[in-house]
Sequence to fold (229 residues):
Amino acid sequence: MSERPTAVALAGAAGRMGQATAAAVKGAPDMELVAQIDPLLGAQGIAESLAGADVLVDFTAPDAVLANVKAALAAGVHVVIGTTGFDPQELERLATDQPANVFAAPNFAIGAVLMMRFAAEAARHMAGAEIIELHHEQKLDAPSGTAKRTAALMRQAAGGEVPIHSVRLPGLVADQEVLLGDLGQTLSIRHVTTSREAFMPGVLLAIRSVAGLPSSPLIGLEHLLWPQG
Ligand code: NAP
Fold:
């Protein structure tokens, strides 16, 4: 007998990422979209919307996400966070030792996760590095969560600060270039996102994985793609 589909509630459902996520969840045979939460879609509160949900997916805004996480944890609902720009220490404080799990990823695109991995490896061998992140002009946070996470991974691997430059222009989705320099040479690692579909396999993987995480909160898609490191 087949298991019942995972019931997914989606916060930020009317936004750019929310609309792409709603379509991806509706297209997944093992998932059911049970609630779409967004000020633009009506006034129903988060607590009512979470009734019957197994997982809350949040693609809202830096000043909204933690209240949603708090409500979900209070209701025993697992959380997948795609929103960036919040304080990770605050998440740690909220989500540690809770019966429900929290998974967050600053970037759900496989190419971006590989970029971060290669950048951390390259940082061990090159004298200096800088990050240029380029996003659409309506993005609320700068630098991006991906750039901050890349810099943290490079710092962890090789020490030293990695400066970040932020570009905001219409026409862009979410791009990043990591430039590394050494005597007489440069290395460029560049990830370009042309459509929000790039993030959807990662979002669906996180929804399928969040109930069984080894620890919570867990940050970074790499932990789900390569659990052995
Ligand atoms: P967006 O188009 O502005 O969408 C956000 C939506 O959330 C808006 O409709 C907003 O409504 C709604 N919202 C605000 N507060 C809410 C609340 N308390 N409950 C429910 N909905 C609420 O933004 P976006 O481009 O989709 O990006 C959303 C987030 O995802 C950003 O933090 C962005 O950096 C991040 N992101 C992550 C990834 C990743 O791979 N992890 C990829 C792309 C983007 P109002 O407009 O009425 O405020």
Observations:
- The longest helix spans residues 110-123.
- DSSP finds eight helices and ten strands in the chain.
- The longest strand covers residues 174-182.
- The chain has a mean pLDDT of 96.
